[in-house]
Protein: Olfactory receptor 10G3
Amino acid sequence: MERVNSTLLTEFILTGIPHPLRLRTFLFMFFLFVYILTQLGNLLILITVWVDPQLHARPMYIFLGVLSIIDMGISSIIVPRLIMNFTVGIKPIPFGGCAAQLYFYHFLGSTQCFLYTLMAYDRYLAICQPLRYPVLMNAKLSTMLVAGAWLAGSIHGTIQVILTFRLPYCGPNQVNYFFCDIPAVLRLACADTAVNEMVTFVDIGVVVASCFSLILLSYVQIIRAILRIQTADGRRRAFSTCGAHVTVVTVYYVPCAFIYLRPETNSPLDGAAALFPTAITPFLNPLIYTLRNQDVKLALKRLIRGP
Structure:
């Protein structure tokens, strides 16, 4: 299709994930099941942290509750639209809806990066400076840090949506992706996107690289402190408090680096990689934190048993 410079687009068509027609019903049911479990699992974590007095007074679990809110938000922004692609008929997304989806995904996604960094710093203080931990990481400071993460994420999302949608889009309108993300949308722009691609690479690269470097630095210090613990049981308990966080960071950062921090390509693997931060990680986080965290498991038992 030729580009028509005189007519700007008012809607986009998301092609979704390439799939055989015979699997359409299965994929519809699978992602619907994943979405429902994601919402229920994260809601259960959020309620548990909120009502259990032993959890909501501790910064680590305040961060975990905020993570559940972010996971519910990312899943709600992306997965219902993905599920619609497995139904019959073409379902376009309005231009404004595409911009909103891109904004909220990058707003919540970058906030999640900052939150993972705060959680690593929290574990560093708890293990490396346990005597000073109540002073260094109190409820007031943790609330301020979370507010800063939300603010920084909002700024990042605003920059990305302004840069992306300041360009003219005059056709074609078919986005070869399952949601409105920067690389897929920029391919449809009727203008040079070199500046956008450079700024996107630098902006996202700075966020991902700085957060990951701080997390890595925290865990280097944590591992050194754990190895100095004399008893095997003490080392095991210290590692167990960090295992869940290391797992979710790995599952989140590796796909994000693959999608955004490499030369521009149009690989089918991009869509598969994007499923992890948008659908798989929000689904896995409640499972990882309930199966690997003894405090959360005990709090869930208290919640189920009641007073």
